[in-house]
Amino acid sequence: MFDTAELDRKVSKEDYAEKAPLLRQELLETQIILKEAPFPVIVLFGGVDGAGKSETINLLHEWLDPRWLIARAYGKPTEEAAQRPSFWRFWRDLPPHGRIGFFLSAWYSDPILNRVHNKTSDAEFDEELDQILNFEKGLTDDRVLIVKFWMHLGRDAQKERFQQLEEDPLTSWRVKEKDWENWEKYDDFTEATERAITKTSRGQAPWHIVEGADERYRTLSVAGTLLERIKRHTQQLAASSEEASPEKAKVELSSDLSYNPTPEITILSQLDMTLNLPKPEYSERLEELQGRLNQLSRQAQEAGVSTVIAFEGWDAAGKGGAIRRIIPGLDSRLSQVIPITAPSAEEFSYHYLWRFWRHIPMAGRVTIFDRSWYGRVLVERVEGYATEEEWMRAYAEINDFEAQLVSNRTVVCKFWMNITKEEQGDRFERRKKLPHKKWKLTEEDWRNREKWDAYEAAVNEMIERTSTFRARWTLVEANNKRFARIKVLETICDGLEKELAKSEA
Amino acid sequence: MFDTAELDRKVSKEDYAEKAPLLRQELLETQIILKEAPFPVIVLFGGVDGAGKSETINLLHEWLDPRWLIARAYGKPTEEAAQRPSFWRFWRDLPPHGRIGFFLSAWYSDPILNRVHNKTSDAEFDEELDQILNFEKGLTDDRVLIVKFWMHLGRDAQKERFQQLEEDPLTSWRVKEKDWENWEKYDDFTEATERAITKTSRGQAPWHIVEGADERYRTLSVAGTLLERIKRHTQQLAASSEEASPEKAKVELSSDLSYNPTPEITILSQLDMTLNLPKPEYSERLEELQGRLNQLSRQAQEAGVSTVIAFEGWDAAGKGGAIRRIIPGLDSRLSQVIPITAPSAEEFSYHYLWRFWRHIPMAGRVTIFDRSWYGRVLVERVEGYATEEEWMRAYAEINDFEAQLVSNRTVVCKFWMNITKEEQGDRFERRKKLPHKKWKLTEEDWRNREKWDAYEAAVNEMIERTSTFRARWTLVEANNKRFARIKVLETICDGLEKELAKSEA
Q1: Nearest C-alpha of chain A: how many angstroms from B116?
Q2: CA B293, CA B411: separation in Å to the nearest integer?
């Protein structure tokens, strides 16, 4: 989930000097319109310590007209609050219509920390997240706009940041012993956070994950997103309000400033696409891994551990080839490959997940999906077959679907087969020339290629929202087919081994 | 919650003979239109054994064209299903577009029974209900229409029904030892059910509670509701679909048949409005109860147990008088009365619950609300100040709000002060004549009186949906003021006593 926020994205001084004043101006103008709007804005900042939560709130106070702003941070409940239900203090502090309230961690703080410090169980944690969902849903149903930012720093980046702060006598007071203690629990914290974000990104209040290391980047990112969300919300309300005259509904949405100041940096752009594996080494490892898989899959069958493998990737990225290298490692009576194409008329008359549920393996068996339910947030999104509302809620639906698999002792492996655009071009050309591969190349492949950037943005968001602790994405550098196949086989074997170790323990 | 389904509602043979054929015809016609519709209908029957779940499904199979129907009942999972996530078999059985699927208990069965038999904890039960919510939300988001009926029988009615079945040699096989065992657990069953219904009535798939004792009544009630829900859904989809031509959107909604075949029987109509208390007895008991309240409220203060009392009722039903009889029993430093009128401009710029949250008492204190958050589902509903969508979701919001209070050790007492329309007329006339009471009577009171039936329907639904195990409504027969005041005081004292006993234990 946070892989996409550890890409070391930066904004240069010049870039910032050009964009920031425009953004600031537009935000200020929007705030003036907002003053008369029939809803308040709640901006919630959660995240890792040191990722710039309070700095960003302070900066937005400088940028905006502070008379219409509220900012709230929460420590231990006061006596007033401790004696009332835990949400009382948040209800008390809600901003009225027309104002923006900035909330620091707020209702997310205690549930996450209590889980990290094992004061609550998973079920109790879920219960608390549920209350949060109800609380936020009550507000958004009442037209409140909730914008939630999760400010992220990688484990090492956080350490660095703390050391920086400690070295400067002016800021050293900000790093407390407790911060280092929490840093030690970085992984627990990430796991709890991921669960919280996954569960509370439903509905009208999704989280925006922001890479917090570079101040200029995070500022433009937060301010741009906030601006866009306010404009969209105003527009949507106007559109849905029957009283609104048609002109009123036309609040302009387009902004010159994309809310992602560095759209060219995605998780895919960070892969080392030169990775390679020489032939002799490949043959050796392939045989070894197929043997290992054979053994593991038999153990899995006995232990009742199922496996679901999903392949996604660029056209011609080698999904089929990789699948063919898995098959020899499996007992064909206990495994099946399901190729996913456009839904049939029958499938189309069901929920889009229905056709995948049908093929969920029985205990101990394996299903390999050649393309998968992720079509919803990839091709259906890019080609407009699904509405924005449909693919937006699909992330939560998919996480929920996979969580059900995982808690039913299923190993879930998800592969994104990645090749560069150049490599794809070469492969297309080669296919054109080979009679036995020509059929594989269709008009559609060329059309998809033209939408490369749109697909890349969709892949990036898909990984951000669905790579979870329970069901992680594996990004496969597949310019070299041998390297890719080995990585796939190894990942499956490791996943099985881990799950089987759990069963034994 | 089930009080409103124990009113002994019946439909006469003549009435049934007149209405049933029309309803049947209209259902059949609707089914034909439905065949081309872009959504399936899921009709789920839950409820008490013997309340007519399967009889109703059978009858609807006779009424409708069975070629487009599916019916599913679930026992223990088959080997096929047991080896997959628990929702797999429900996904498998979903009806495609255009068809109606009848599901018997289905995904509600195991979670409720496991809770009743203590195989799961409250938190685990909530977790399972949560999964149900996600499952249903996924479907309704995809336009599936879900209609859920809870067929109810009171404890005694269920016993009677079992005995009837046992006496008839043709049906005696239907009553198993297990049924009697479950009957012994009637209260546990009701509590778990209530929690399930409260939690899963959110969103687009609300429960309809049907009194199951009279076959004709339940048939008309279920068939009528089903017809209305299908028509509404078709209409809403047509209205929201942009492609739909304006004519298409005009699916007629009005049906001659109200889905409640006996609207004149409400929970209020069952109260014994002649209840009375003679003056000498009243004075004695009043003094005694005020003393008891005094003692209890001091104990509550020490124990940190808070009290929230909400008064609703007809105009001139004696809310103020009842409140004045409570006050002497309380320490005025620790209690406050909050009169609720139309929201101020300030209050109006917040969520409607905000102004009630503000007055939640600190630990050990008491707040009395003279009218309350229930205005949302009463006056705001009847007068159209809230949209249907707003007041429909308010039931869940209110249950959630009160659950937070209760789990924070707050005694929640909710009183509906009930008088007959005649009594109200008399009181209005008397007020007109008394100079010091004349101010109490406004134009609005007369206008409200004209909408008596609409209010009565709203009150009935309010009680059905918000009288929960944790926060039960007390209906006060208030034609006699002395009787009413004593009942109110007694209820508060009992509530405090019960909560304090819990604290000691």
Answers
A1: 19
A2: 13
CATH superfamily, domain at B268-504: P-loop containing nucleotide triphosphate hydrolases (3.40.50.300)
Report, in this order, helix, strand and coil percent for chain B, each rounded to 5. 55, 10, 30
CB A151 within 8 A of CB A210: yes
Question: Is A142–B351 a contact, with Cβ atoms under 8 angstroms apart?
Answer: yes
pLDDT digits (tens, 9 = 90+) for A39-69: 999 999 998 888 889 899 999 998 998 888 9
Going B246 to B247 to B248 to B254, the CA torsion angle's sign is positive
Q: Are A117 and A177 in contact (CB under 8 A)?
A: no
Q: Mutate which of B70, B84, B87, B354 to disrupt the A interface (most A C-beta within 10 Å)? A: B84
Other Cβ atoms within 10 Å of B422 Cβ, number: 10
From chain B, the residues in CB contact with A361 under 8 A are 84
pLDDT at B305: 95
Q: How far apart are CA A176 and CA A184, in angstroms?
A: 13
pLDDT of B250 reads 39
Whether the CB-CB separation of B6 and B186 falls below 8 Å is answered with no
Is the CB of B91 less than 8 angstroms away from the CB of A304? no
Nearest to B357 among A88, A127, A357 (CB): A88
Burial of B140 (0-12, 13-18, 19+ CB in 10 A): middle
Judge residue A284's burial from the number of C-beta atoms within 10 Å of its C-beta, 0-12 exposed, 13-18 middle, 19 or more buried. exposed
CA-to-CA distance for B138 and A373, rounded, in angstroms?
14
Contact B138 A358 (CB under 8 A): no
CA distances from A356 to A321, B81, B208, B287 (A): 22, 15, 32, 69
Confidence of residue A250 (pLDDT cuts 50, 70, 90): very low
**Taking CB atoms and an 8 Å limit, are A353 and B138 in contact across chains?**
yes
Measured between CA atoms, the residue of chain B closest to residue A125 is B123
Q: What is the dihedral of CA A347, A353, A358, A359, to 10 degrees?
A: 110
CB A262 within 8 A of CB A256: no
CB atoms < 10 A from the CB of B179, how many?
16
pLDDT, tens digit, for every residue of B13-34?
999 999 999 999 999 999 999 9
Residue A87 contacts residue A131 (beta carbons within 8 Å): yes
What is the nearest CA distance from A264 to chain B, expressed in angstroms?
A: 33
Q: Do B151 and B218 form a contact (C-beta atoms < 8 A)?
A: yes
For the cut 80, the answer to whether the pLDDT of residue A98 exceeds it is: yes
Nearest CA in chain A to B130: A130
3-state secondary structure of A146: strand
Answer yes or no: do B353 and A91 touch at CB < 8 A.
Answer: yes
Is A4's pLDDT higher than 50? yes
> Which residues does chain B have within 8 Å of residue A357's beta carbon, measured at their own beta carbons?
87-88, 91-92
Q: Domain limits of chain B?
A: 3-240, 268-504
State the angle between helix axes of B122-141 and A122-141 in degrees (0 to 180), rounded to the nearest 10.
40
B370 φ, ψ (degrees, to nearest 5): -90, 100
Residues of chain B contacting A86 with CB distance shorter than 8 Å: 404, 408
Q: Tell me, yes or no, if the two domains B3-240 and B268-504 fold the same way.
A: yes
Provide, as residue numbers in chain A, all residues whose Cβ is less than 8 Å from the Cβ of B85: 360, 404-405, 407-408
Residues of B whose CB is below 8 A from A407: 85
| Partners of residue B397 in chain A, C-beta under 8 Å | 134, 138
Name chain A contacts of B84, Cβ cutoff 8 Å: 360-363, 408
In chain B, which residue's Cα lies nearest the Cα of A304? Answer: B83
Torsion of CA A22, A27, A32, A35, to 10 degrees: 180
Class of domain A3-240 as given by CATH:
alpha beta
The rounded Cα A295 to chain-centroid distance in angstroms is 34
Amino acid at B323: I
